[in-house]
């Protein structure tokens, strides 16, 4: 290898390490957030009695219709403002024009995926709304 090739390889290795370091830090931030969220949840649960937890569960079930309507309103807003939301994300994340165009054209696939996941994971809310 020539000196020029050695410098180019060494320069590329530094870039890969920098990218890995950024993703590692992002992963650690997410893990820290989840650990803090879990700690707060466990602290709250340990300070509540069984009756209070039961009352909390019942009140959340009573509000399930509101949560359901909120999620569907969010789906509708995303459907109507898809281009603006994706354009904003593209500017923020510095996506290429080809990638941005591909995501904009896949609006209906993403909306169908969200609705499918909503129906699969939240069928209990729909059953309680109907009864």
Structural summary, described in words:
The protein is mostly helical and 131 residues long. It folds into 2 domains: 47 residues; 82 residues, no CATH class. The chain is 91% helix and 0% strand. The longest helix is centred in the first third of the chain and has 45 residues. The model has no long low-confidence stretch (mean pLDDT 81). The protein has 7 helices and no strands. It is flat, with a radius of gyration of 23 Å.
Keyword list:
single chain, 131 residues, 0% strand
Task: Indicate how many domains the architecture comprises.
Answer: 2
Helix fraction, binned, reads over 70%
What's the shape? flat
Query: Which spans have pLDDT < 50 for at least 5 consecutive residues?
Result: none
User: What is the number of helices?
Assistant: 7
Task: Summarize model confidence as the mean pLDDT.
Answer: 81
Number of strands: 0
- Measured on Cα atoms, how large is the radius of gyration? 23 Å
How far is the N terminus from the C terminus?
Answer: 75 Å
| SSE arrangement, N to C | HHHHHHH
- Classification by helices and strands: mainly alpha
Largest beta-sheet details: none
Strand content: under 5%
In brief:
Helices cover 91% and strands 0% of the residues. The chain has 131 residues and is an all-alpha fold.
Strand and helix map with partners:
Blueprint: H1 3-47, H2 50-62, H3 64-80, H4 82-93, H5 97-105, H6 107-121, H7 123-130
């Amino acid at each position: 290898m020539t000196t020029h090739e050695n410098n180019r390889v060494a320069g590329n290795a530094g870039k890969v390490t920098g990218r890995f370091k950024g993703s590692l830090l992002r992963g650690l931030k997410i893990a820290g957030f989840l650990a803090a969220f879990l700690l707060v949840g466990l602290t709250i649960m340990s300070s509540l009695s069984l009756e209070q937890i039961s009352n909390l569960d019942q009140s959340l079930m009573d509000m399930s219709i509101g949560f359901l309507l909120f999620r569907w309103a969010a789906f509708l807003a995303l459907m109507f403002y898809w281009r603006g939301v994706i354009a904003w994300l593209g500017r923020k994340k510095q996506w290429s024009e080809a990638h941005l165009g591909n995501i904009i054209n896949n609006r209906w696939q993403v909306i169908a995926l969200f609705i499918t996941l909503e129906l699969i994971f939240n069928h209990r809310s729909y059953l309680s709304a109907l009864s």
